[in-house]
Automatic annotation (TrEMBL):
Cofactor note: Binds 1 FAD per subunit.
Domain Pyridine nucleotide-disulphide oxidoreductase dimerisation: 339-447
Domain FAD/NAD(P)-binding: 4-319
Domain of life the protein comes from: Bacteria
UniProtKB keywords: Cytoplasm, Disulfide bond, FAD, Flavoprotein, NAD, Nucleotide-binding, Oxidoreductase, Redox-active center
GO biological process: 2-oxoglutarate metabolic process
Misc note: The active site is a redox-active disulfide bond.
Major site of localization recorded for this protein: cytoplasm
EC number: 1.8.1.4
The name this protein goes by in its record: Dihydrolipoyl dehydrogenase
């Protein structure tokens, strides 16, 4: 039996980052993966979707070349090659993970791992043991009883990312990040897209101002938006899928070539031995403490299978915290109130901290500022004037309670707010931090100035 200090189950951005950090700390480490290194994020999620969205952005630029004084008379798309490029990017990233694991002398064990009592892992009938076993098995697309996926007419994110031919029409059910990113991609490629959301707003977890702006942008792009609506049943017997949609005004029947179910995710915790070991779960999540220890000593869990936000960067941070604690490094628990969230549709969305509604409900007296990109020189020059930056401060002490952005490139800008909040900066300190001109990031400073009644460019 092979013996390790640490065995990690799953090689997604939680698992492989955890394994590498463990190795850096001098722990003999192995990682178990049943499919491709990098997990869903690198192979079927974060990375390949961004490759698809980049193709959509370039195609949009070609369609609007005249807006930039350019004449492009003849252009088209090759949908197959767009998908092929995306798969190539994913494959390259997976090979990169393979290189990193090899560089850090981590043993890769291929196969389906199942934990056993006595700090053991079974992979295809062969047993491995470790002082510490970290479970990072991630999640997959959730299936609802009335939205059963057949992989052809009713699909999940995997199929949406690798369709052989582009559908003429698509119904997207759910408007979280996965739903709106695919809605944007297919709409940009020329598919007729309808998006159905049960709640009153698209991207319902975002600040309400952001949701409203996002919905306006989607409608302007030609996407049909149905909020306060739900798909009750599907008929896949004909050439087109017939979807019965319940709306505030009654039932409506929609038809499309493909229905994409983007109604959330479900954790991969079945048949991995949790019950055999006696590890406690609740509502499909593994229960852990601040250091990601389960109720059974020597067994840990990180990432999507635990109660925190199901985000790649959260999984990585949890894994690093977990192994640093194991190695005796002094670490602080993760502040889950300062986790950035990003959505990569067009316009992009990025946010951290409380929404205005949440801050009011928490009893804060607020200073709220907003700066539209229509007043930004860089945004005007780029032809990307949709959107704004919104900041929320506690009026009494100046604490930066929340920051919400919608517009071009905001997913690359949100880190300023995350760092500022981590360092407990105040509105006045942000105001006195000189931002380069002309940049989109100036909008953060201008929004803060607006909150404090000092805005110059509005």
């Amino acid at each position: 039996m092979s013996k390790y200090d640490v065995i990690v189950l799953g090689s997604g951005p939680g698992g492989y980052v955890t394994a590498i950090r463990a190795s850096q700390l001098g722990l003999k480490t192995a990682i178990v993966e049943k499919e491709s290194l990098g997990g869903v994020c690198l192979n079927w999620g974060c990375i390949p979707t961004k490759a698809l969205l980049k193709s959509a952005q370039v195609f949009d630029y070609l369609k609007h070349a005249d807006s930039y004084g350019l004449i492009v008379k003849d252009f088209d798309k090759d949908f197959g090659k767009v998908v092929e490029r995306s798969r190539g990017v994913a494959e390259g990233m997976s090979k990169g993970v393979q290189f990193l694991l090899k560089k850090n002398k981590i043993d890769v064990i291929n196969g389906f791992g199942k934990i056993k009592p006595g700090k053991k892992v079974d992979v295809g009938g062969k047993e491995y043991s470790a002082d510490h076993i970290i479970i990072a098995t991630g999640a997959r697309s959730r299936e609802l009883p009335n939205l059963k996926q057949d992989g052809k007419k009713v699909i999940g994110y995997r199929e949406a990312m690798s369709l052989k031919t582009q559908p003429k029409s698509m119904i997207v059910v759910g408007s979280g990040a996965i739903g709106v990113e695919f809605a944007h991609f297919y709409n940009s490629m020329g598919t007729e897209v309808t998006i159905v959301e049960f709640l009153p707003n698209l991207v319902p977890l975002e600040d309400e101002d952001v949701s409203k702006q996002f919905e306006r942008s989607f409608k302007k792009a030609g996407i049909k938006v149905m909020t306060n609506s739900s798909v009750e049943k599907l008929d896949t017997s004909g050439k087109l899928v017939k979807a019965t949609v319940k709306t505030a005004k009654g039932e409506e029947t929609l038809e499309a070539e493909v229905v994409l179910s983007a109604v959330g995710i479900i954790t991969n915790i079945e048949n991995i031995g949790l019950e055999d070991v006696g590890i406690v779960t609740d509502k499909g999540k593994v229960m852990v403490n601040d250091w990601y220890q389960t109720n059974i000593p020597g067994y840990y869990a990180i990432g999507d299978i635990t109660p925190g936000p199901a985000l790649a960067h959260v999984a990585s941070a949890e894994g690093i915290t977990c192994v640093e604690k194991i190695a005796g490094v002094h670490v602080e628990p993760i502040d889950y109130g300062n986790i950035p969230g990003c959505t990569y549709a067009s316009p992009e969305i990025a946010s951290v901290g409380m929404t205005e509604k949440q801050a009011k409900e928490a009893g804060y007296e607020l200073k709220v500022g907003k700066f539209p990109f229509s007043a930004s020189g860089k945004a005007s020059a780029s032809g990307e004037k949709d959107g704004f930056v919104k900041v929320i401060f506690d009026a009494k002490y100046g604490e930066w309670l929340g920051c919400h952005m919608i517009g071009a490139g905001v997913t690359d800008m949100i880190a300023e707010a995350v760092l500022g909040r981590k360092l407990e900066t105040t509105g006045h300190e942000v105001l006195k931090t000189i931002h380069p001109h002309p940049t989109m990031s100036e909008a953060v400073m201008e929004a803060v100035a607006d909150a404090y009644g000092e805005v110059i460019h509005l």
